[in-house]
Amino acid sequence: MTVSVDDTNAFAHKYLHNYGIPAEDLKKHSWKISRFDDTLTLSLFGVESDTFTAGGHEWNILCRPQNCVQEEKVNVSIYLNCKGPKQLAKNWHVCAQFIFAISNPNDGTCYLQHGGKARFSDSNQSWGFSNFAELDKLLGPDGSRVKPIIENHEAVVTAFVQVFKDETGFLWHDFVNYDSKKETGYVSLKNHGGAGYLNPLLQLLFSNTYLRKAVYQIPTEHDGPDSVALTLQRIFYELQTSDKAVGIAQLTKSLIAWKPLDVSQSQVVHEFMRMLQRELQSRTKNTSLDGFFRYLFVGKCKRYIKCINVDHESSQEENFSDVQLDIKDFQGRPFKTLQESLKAYVAPQKIDGDIKHYAGDDHGLQVANEGTVFIEFPPVLHLHLNRFEYNFQEDKQIKIDDGLEFPSKLDLAPYLDESADKTANWNYRLQGVLVHSGEAQEMKYFAFIQPHPQSKWYKFDDDRVIPVTAGEVLKSSTNVHMLVYIRESKEAAIRTTITQADTPTHLKSLLQQAQKLHEQKKKEDEERHLYLTTKIVTEETFRVFQGFDLALFDDKTMPPSDVPTFRVAKKQRFLDFKSTLARDLGYQPEQIRLRPLLVPVDRPRAAVPENVQTLTMEVIRDTAMASSTQDLKLYLEVLDPEHEAEAAESEERQVMIMVKYFNVSDQALSGIGHFWVKEGQRVADLVSLINARMKFPKGSRLKMYEERRPGRIVLMDPNTTFGEAQMLDGDIICFEIEFSDEELEKLGRQYAYLDPVSFYDFLANRVLVRFKPRHTNMAKMIEFDIPLSKTLTYSQMAHLVGKRLHRNPARLRFINSEQGDPHHVIRRQGTVADMIKSSDNDSINNTLFYELLDLPVDGIETERKVKITWTGAHNREDGTYSFLMPKTASMQDVIDKLMQLSTFITFSKNSTRKIKLFTFHDGQMEKQFSGEELLINVADLENLHATELQTMTTQYDPVAMLKMLHFVKKLSVDGTNYPTWLKTVESILGMATGKVNLLTSPDQTIGCAEDLIIKQAIAASVDDALVLTVVEAESGMEAFDKIQKRWNSRNKQVIIMKEILQTRFKICDTTADIGSHFQVIKNLAGRLFKSGFELTKESFIGLLFHLSLPRLDIPPFGNISRRIDARPGGAATISNDQLVQLAQTELQKFRKNRKTTSGTSNSNPTEPSSSTGKSINRGPQMSKPCHNCSH
User: Where is the MATH domain (predicted)?
Assistant: First the structure.
């Protein structure tokens, strides 16, 4: 429909965009330009309209030519210019959208228009279009326009200006030079990669001042840098005091220990929050804060199953720290509001059909309703929206983009149980919103937070903190991931004011120290170009050095030498540095001489001449080191006055020789200083000088070796002169005492290296290896480092470690490491290089673990140690017996060996005198041996137990059973040890009753007395929080059924298995580690088995079949997990035939209901809208699959 420029409302309605922002004013200003074409072609600067007012600001229009030289045409440029508010103010701005129209002066329907929006300010007063239109096209008809716009050289330029109300002050801001702290009082957190949700979550926690105060009170004075609590305190304090964005790198590093939680997965936000709460709770046990975090975040709910036709209800109260709400219902229809999702959460689900609820022996299988209701909500409520689901066709997570409206105030009373106090104030106020933007794989998060009820809302992202409107917060419904509500009656306490006095003094001191070090390091980095590092080798450092040359500076296999090191200004005079150095080391400047260690040999060839010592340190370094990037390395020579006087008179050149002593007995080198020799002297002449300095007996015979280069240690001819040997200042000779053949043979039996050649070979191949005890409970075992040659054999290494530990090396066994943890036992072959994976000094793979065995390692190859605990006739431990058996022996041979010890073993009266051999671990019987098994194939020989093989008439001993139950690890509320607990209790019940698999065998007949024993055993072996559940059960088997159903949850197994299938190794991520990825899968599998899943062929097929069914959250298959979990015993009791039958029943029911619905419906359903807002044409019903069949 054609509108006229003259019709303000119609034109504005058609072309002005609705931004959802309150508008303050809308003005139209028309400006008629005579001789329009001439004005533009002749005027260089264009023309301006008269001034008009809109939104309290003054405006005008600027129209000017824009010449295009290459195309020889003139374009019309139009700009809207804001002159500022009528009452001029400093730093003013105004936000407006505008539409320009050039129209025919006689026909308002003939026009050309363009529009835009902008933030006008004193620095950006004009916005518009440099190429609004070509002048030639305005002079005649163009396209569908039959009239020219410029007619009789006239045209009308009209501006429609809509001024918006900028509620936050930052509408359409470019954020150049934006200061979050100055504008909002808050700062952002730096994004270090990984978990994108971590930063906004921390901001949400920080905004809870009640929580922040409590975190500050956690005792962390003695915590290390990896402490989560201390790091959280630091982050909170820096957010509170810093003017710039705060880093969280240390927290990210600390969270690595929280595997199997993958902090990079978007769907585990709620799990991260739970783990953080547990961490904080554990740190406040037995303190004044004990229970605080549970009070703040944990509420109570009741899960129930209530029969419809009989008076029977099973219920269990549970704690919850968050509520996970669905975006869609079971039919896949999206909820419109948060209240609808909450209502569906507490709505009961009917248990009917083939899968009914077992209501005990009195009522049998019954139709029932199951559901969850809330008893009490916590002061701070976290609502997580299940916005991600797995698409099996695309093999990836997809995000549900359906909107879910949420209120700023929420009344939670309608979702409480009847027993709750509904007269109390259950109104909650929205405090924070965690928003996920982008696709499921994109880790883009930010948070909306209202720190105080009367404050503005703010948007916290990785770049800045900006004010936003409440309307903008409530419009984020399609991306909201978590909502934080605060109970109004608790709000005053939770949003309390925090002061500097609430901050721990040790934290302030720690951060001040860290800031000081940071500033110091920053200053050093900024001034690095002004300084150079100078390292000094002295006679003292040379004396203790073990290696080639005079010191070790840059070696990956060993730590650098500990030599005096100085940070020296490059422009400092060398003479001044020498004076300062002499004073620091206790000399007079004239007593020392400094010799640069020249590259590439690091030998002190020549001293810095006296006539150049006024040069700068930089010049000396560049001259000596031949590189401006290297450190300056100097040898400090202490002058000998007697030698100096002699050298001044001597005409023959003298050479300074550095000398080392190889001590066979110590297996070590030691520098003994330097000697001055004449070029014409023989090498043998040095012997007497060395003997005198070392105080060896006169006439001691020495062997001399020249240290030429690594791998080139040469025995010297004593008759050769130093000149003939071409020795220079700083060259090195290593000597040893000369031994006879008999002495060498004797030494060879004690020491690995008998001469400098072999010892230098060791030094060339050495690597620093750290040895750790494999088990932390190994008494008097220590952790230590030994430099080893990579060519050492297993036996040689064991000898050195045994000597260090004062233990028999034959009984030491070694284990290599994987990521710093024990990995595989090392076989007695190969070299050290084969045992470690890196030769770098700082590699964690240079760690070997050791353990001390009771027999030699080589003996393990033919024999195995067997350790058996005899429990006796009354299930009491009467003794432990250890003996060696050939690996080829059978377990019956082991029993026979034990029978030979019958003088220590007593049997009951009328006993069969037969022995039952089994493994017993963590209080549970794991495996009973038939006797045919070979010893070599039995993995666990440390936990063998033996007892008298009892007949079925064995009498029940309640005292013995309760004693054994006393040592059982009690089943806790979280159920992580459920499989272990079940095996243990079943094993003990088997000993007490003589019946195997009393709890889990479907064919087992249980009498009243045995049922009482079951109830007694379960009550004694569960946590206090579960005792009431057992006591209230009508029978022992009913008590077990309640316990078993709690953890044998098919719903939990399906969720974990989905997560396993969804976890993919990120091959494009260069930082991704395949070992860490394996650990994630391993931990997820561990969680699967802890959920009650036992891996058998049938159970595995059943679970995979279940996962293959589409859309497990909606009909027809949405109720399968619920019905399985509702069975007596839960998922542990359903066979695959029953599973298939259950799926078939649900499918038939669904098809029947669907057929009935489609046959009786006469209404015209509302067509859904696509994401673009356009109606979708469904087409024939059979041409498209239903939503239930899509993955």
Answer: 26-161
